[in-house]
Please model this.
Amino acid sequence: MFTESGFIMIAGAGPTGLTLARELQRRGVPFRIVEKETTPFTGSRGKGLQPRTQEILDDLGLITDFRKYGGDYPELLIHLPGGASMRQRMDELHDPTPQVPYPNLLMVPQWRTSSLLADGVPIEYGTGLTSFTQDEAGVHVTLDTGETVTCRYLVGADGGRSTVRQQLGVPFEGETHETERLLIADVRIDGLDRDNWHIWPGADARSFRLGLCPLPGTDDFQLTAPPTDQSVEDLVASVDPSLTVTHIGWTSHFRANIRMVARYRVGNVFLAGDAAHVHSPAGGQGLNTGIQDAWNLGWKLAVGDDQLLQTYETERLPVAAGVLGISTRLHQRHVDGEDDAMRRDDPVLRQLSLTYRGGPLAAEHRATPGPVRAGDRAPDGLLPDGRRVFDLLRGPHATLLAFGWDGDLPFDPAHRISDPETIKAYAVREPTLFLVRPDGYLGCATTDPADITAYRTLIGQ
Model:
């Protein structure tokens, strides 16, 4: 499939680039991943992993480690002016179900997410991309080490200031809200319990003064506050003199930057993650959307078919636009000081309802499909032998699920499903074949085996 110069170059070793590298690595696809920073990222920044992202980590075989070091989002303890307090949850904790094994947002500091994804990945730190050209022979990349290489595909996962995007000349359309800024820092504090996310409102109780969120698996709190001339130590002492800051680590001054591209692909160069879209952190969507960009792109790069690769932009661009709208609305609630601005109970935020229905890879052939259709996420389910549907799907392959099917199976691997609860979860009313794509979305839904044979050619399986 790949010639000597047919490897894939990934620019950027954040969660997006690392997810892509993991996916290519397990498929045996040659790649290089370069990172201009000389050391791994050390901050907590994007700390929330949505349920759909956890399912991706399950597929990669990493979910046990992530759950070992992560934790549920704690209850908010709001310290009101005058000494009173109140409690509030961003979202109620949900019980796992056979269809949704990871129903809650998982808090993991971003540095830990990157570290777990990076384990075993050969990252070239201190190596940045400076320029590239492309022609029929491939993408010719110049690195800041002076090396020039030719690769088959280049993926820019190099963040909001993406060199790859700038070199492509793809506009980054949107707005930067210069007046909407936030101080973020990782700190250690003596005298503060770690069972709650502590919030101190401003004097009018609708404004925000300081937040301290305990980060699971660490001794740190993530501090958030409006811009201030006070030192971190003085800021914390101003809300509670009994608290002592003992360490200040990663610090960042965030400004509201809400932008996205109109193209995810130019020739054999692709954009993913923050290089393609940047969001308000409200709602915990940005990092998760980047990981899902990589998840959508990885298997398509491995196949290498040009028509299949074109579906990356077709599928992911509308998703990024929708997510940008959601996070922007949540951000505006904070700006407006709405009473429920911290609530995160909209099910859309969990990204389980994300669908590619109507897209080029959603082949729904049934005359009367039910609520689960081609393009949707494949639900999990418990099987009579103790396995889960996700156990059948785990790995880099597409999978055929045959519900109530007695005939021959036109694909391998294939699994006959007769369990009533799983049949109910897939809303099947007659013998049905579902071909599940390598990324866990329902590609083809049909009652005719010939449709499966045609579809497998479409996705290179």
